[in-house]
Amino acid sequence: DAGVTQSPTHLIKTRGQHVTLRCSPISGHKSVSWYQQVLGQGPQFIFQYYEKEERGRGNFPDRFSARQFPNYSSELNVNALLLGDSALYLCASSLSGGRTDTQYFGPGTRLTVL
Amino acid sequence: AQKVTQAQTEISVVEKEDVTLDCVYETRDTTYYLFWYKQPPSGELVFLIRRNSFDEQNEISGRYSWNFQKSTSSFNFTITASQVVDSAVYFCALSESTRAAGNKLTFGGGTRVLVKP
Predict the structure, then answer these.
(1) CA-CA-CA-CA torsion sign (B47, B52, B53, B56)
(2) Which chain B positions have a beta carbon within 8 Å of A110's beta carbon?
(3) What are A14-45's pLDDT values in tens digits?
């Protein structure tokens, strides 16, 4: 069975640009979460979606937005990129997004902002 | 707010030595879940183990074992007879459920394990 997939794998943008990252969950999983991992640190929670509804949001500015589609795939959008947005963006999927669920992560998208 | 602390930033061992990774957590929840993930150089976070707060029985799975002690809020992880392929960053994580954040994982800062041949 395929795991969580993310695209693209790498991305280079300049300050002020916009970026869209994509994620496809494990088949049968209905919840997707997004995390940002800055080099040398643990992942930080950005969003959680379940059945196309936003279930939770971390402490990130409004420049960050996301959505989930009927097929449960998801997009993370970041506007007005800053140098500090350079990070590995990880997508995780789980069955229902409940606290008891295990989240399974994709390989990530490495974003570099110049 | 919940917090996870991994005091060891890096551990270096020789192959076949045992490695124990420390994790201390803070939470006000009475029911919670703890996880260990492995992140090899490729970047993908690989799920290793999960433990719920109401089951303090320690277990062994292959070369992995874990010691969960609720009284000291610790969830330590041991790799027995380490191998070069175990070289990675290991993260301890705590599940949290809040109205604002939904169900999220709070991660520690990670411990880099280097296994030398």
Answers:
(1) negative
(2) 43
(3) 999 999 999 999 999 999 999 999 999 999 99
